[in-house]
Amino acid sequence: MTGVERLATVVERLRQELAESRAASDDRALVELAKGVLVERLRCGPAQAAEQLARLAENAGITQLELAVDIINEASGDQFGAIATAADAPDRGAVVRLRKAESGALHADDTQAVARSLFDHALAPLGATAVAIWSAGADSSLTLVGHAGFGVGEAERWRYVPPGVVTLARRALSERDAVWISDLSPSEVPSIGSGLPGRVAVPAGTGGRITGVLEICWPHPVEPQPLSVRKQVEALAELSAATLDITGPVGHVVSAPSELADLADGLLDPALVLGPEIAADGTLSDFRVHHVNNRFSDLAGRTRDAVAGKLLLEAYPLIAAEGNLFDKIERVHATGEPFRAERMTLSTLIDEVPITVTTSVSITRHGVLVLLVWRVQDEAARLANLLQHAQRLGRIGGFEEEPLQGKVIWNSQLYALYGMNPGEEPVPLADITEHAHPDDRGSLNGFLRNVLHHHRPASTAFRLQRAEGVIRHVRVIAEPVLDSQGSLVAVRGAYQDVSSQHWTEVALSAVKDQLAITAQEMAERNKLTLQLQQVIMPPTHPTIDALGLRVAVRYRPAAQEELVGGDWYDAVVLPTKEILISVGDITGHGIKGATGMVALRNALRGLAATGARPSQLLQWLNLVARHLADHIIATAICGIYDPATRVLRWARAGHLPPVLIRGGDSEFLPELRGLLLGAMAEVSYEEGELQLDPGDTLLLYTDGLVERRDMPLDECLDRFRMAVRGGEKDLENLLDDLLANSESNTDDDTCIVGIQLP
């Protein structure tokens, strides 16, 4: 063995002995802390406490270290204690490791030692292979202040991450929440520790103020972790935050540092120095105004003394109701990222009346304090800016001239309207006719006579001919300014480019003419559709009273001609001496709906002559709707009644369920499985059977009878079922009453088919 090898062996042995010594020191610290708790609880001496600890551990069958951790968890009531006593608490070994990590971190001399303690005691047992502790700068930069598990070269390369570089730690800082990444490799997000795909980055801070980020790495993709592990990681992040806060403990600020107060007093705008107010549970509840600068001007007119020392939400409650400024202050305090806005609304209450002003705002963090600066925008400048934008948007150019002195002043919009450069000589009002269309000069002469000779305000419209040949439609308004003697001293006015309005009116006139023609064509088309529908689907159908069954029909077309739809029905005796009964509703209105209704109704009647069952008939009808018609989508019910057995076989294609009235009660038939007609090419339909008894009445109907715009369909159907319960026994009168008293308000077609076995 060479001398270098012997030296390496000695160094490794010493490193191992040092690690063991540190572990033993952490163990002793926890045991001694538990003894102190027993001294306080049992009011005994240290020797008695040690004896009691040993006896209790032996009786419980656990080590003194494990018992010591249990005692500390029960007495502390801190985050680690909550983890140990939660319903999903980790095993005892994990709880012990957390306390050892805490002990090592609290006795560490720097953040590097904290990272090593967290890794050795708590993270390595979770399978992690590396950990990094980042310090967050006020400029959103990140500095690596502690690490374990990374090589020296890797840590040196990532010593500093400048602002703007998107890393996992930067994302956690921005979102202010833990970010778990199962596998970092596909995202290609740069981060320390290449080849370590499993990641979590947790903001580290207390009292609502984030001072850094704890980043943990695994050598393999990480599956979603249980809640107990997530809580352990968050607790370790909070533990690491203690070494990152170099400004002192949060919540102990008594007054603003003189340097920050001097900085605020040196500003030319109102400024407040705010300190965080921490609630009992450790969360940020508000900010207190620690200093008010000399330039302070309260929005509500209060003095500096009336605001200094108050809570921010107490002084300005509306900043929380707006969900605007307070959120920005809280975020700057948490992350350290400055916030600036050129235009922001601030509100306050004056005699219970909210007053809103527009300001520019700057918010920066200095240690644990926040500096808030605002500048109320000058009202005159705001109005001038507003007027300039209004003139630009309204295509308005203003002018003022003094005819006796020959002075003419134009604004930039008027130069643009005339197509002239701002340096050119403006056109006096008296020379306006030289730039107008010849046909408009007569009306302009009358306009000039009223303004310049009769000294009356006037306005007129004309066509402005520009030098490049462009013609603009313009309206000019002028008002004379007179002295005390009634003499004309000035003329003020404005030009407005109304070319867009003129051509819009021309186009609108043409559209109106076209709409009139189209409306007439639509009226004729709707009339034809209604006539077609009434021929094929008359409002009443001759009552079928054959083979021991009564079938009656009522049909009411849509209230408006343009809404004529595709409701259809059929009731016919088949060659097999069975009775076909059907009801359907086609989507769409007008000619398409009416013709689609005719196609399906006639197709079903022809297919029924084959003697097929209702389910097969709907399968064939679905093919007709999808392939042999113009992409029809429809609902339908098809039933075939056999007089010999008094059995009605039926199937449905997305239609509303029939209602059976029997013995004074009413109920819906089962909602058999069946898709809309035309929706899919391959579909099957479930078939049901109903044994009719003497006195039974069955109602088939379309949605125009029951549906309301202001009520769910299920509720509409239930009201309809209750309405027919114990009602009129005569079939004809029952259908008339239902049609007359329908509560539907959809203006849709309505169809009812009633079947009654006397």
From TrEMBL:
**Record keywords, A-Z:** Hydrolase
The protein's matches in SMART domains, at most eight in alphabetical order, are given as:
ANTAR, PP2C_SIG
Tell me the Pfam families matching this sequence: ANTAR, PAS_3, SpoIIE
Q: Which SUPFAM superfamilies match?
A: CheY-like, GAF domain-like, PP2C-like, PYP-like sensor domain (PAS domain)
- UniProt keyword annotation of Hydrolase present: yes
- Taxonomic placement: Bacteria, Bacillati, Actinomycetota, Actinomycetes, Pseudonocardiales
**What region holds the PAC domain?**
458-510
Matches recorded under InterPro entries: ANTAR, Bact_Sigma-Reg, CheY-like_superfamily, PAS-assoc_C, PAS-like_dom_sf, PAS_fold_3, PPM-type-like_dom_sf, PPM-type_phosphatase-like_dom
State the name under which the record lists this protein: Transcription antitermination regulator
Q: Where is the ANTAR domain?
A: 11-72
Domain of life of the source: Bacteria
